[in-house]
Amino acid sequence: KYMITNAGRDFFHIRIRPHPYHVLRINKTLSCAGADRLSTGMRGAFGKAYGTAARVKIGQVLISIRTKEEKIEIAAEALRRAKFKFAGRQKVHVSSKMGFTP
């Protein structure tokens, strides 16, 4: 949103790099009175699919933005604001490979 308002919709290309292939599962258990009659405990505890997550290694690129040279400061600020949405410690790296052409 920061990139759209400050750089314009047509002046950048953003990509989320890791894909969420890791399936999170949950083994639902009852905690009410008489639950011991209804639940099976840890028997057959594989669980149902609960959501997906991305497995990320240290140093792996999470988000990349391609933009023109005059919009670099805006892109760096957008990535700095995006860091707060992720757990852990991230680093904003400005690559020497600039722009839309290699």
Give an overview in words.
With 102 residues, this protein is α+β, with helices and mostly antiparallel strands. The protein is 20% helix and 21% strand. It is built from three helices and four strands; from the N terminus they run αββαββα. The chain has helices spanning 2-6, 35-38, 72-82, and strands at 12-16, 22-26, 48-53, 63-67. The strands form two sheets. Strands 1-4 form a two-stranded antiparallel sheet. The radius of gyration is 21 Å and the shape is elongated. The two termini are 26 Å apart.
Supply the key terms.
102 residues; alpha+beta; two-stranded antiparallel ribbon; 20% helix; 21% strand; elongated
Blueprint (SSEs and pairs):
Blueprint: H1 2-6, E1 12-16, E2 22-26, H2 35-38, E3 48-53, E4 63-67, H3 72-82
Antiparallel strand pairs: 1-4, 2-3
Quick recap:
The protein is α+β, with helices and mostly antiparallel strands.
Q: How much strand content do the residues show?
A: 15-25%
As a percent range, the share of helical residues equals 10-25%
Strand arrangement, major sheet: 1-4
Computed over alpha carbons, the radius of gyration is 21 Å
Number of DSSP helical runs: 3
Main sheet makeup: 2 strands, antiparallel
Compressed to H and E, one letter per element, the order equals HEEHEEH
Q: How would you describe the shape?
A: elongated
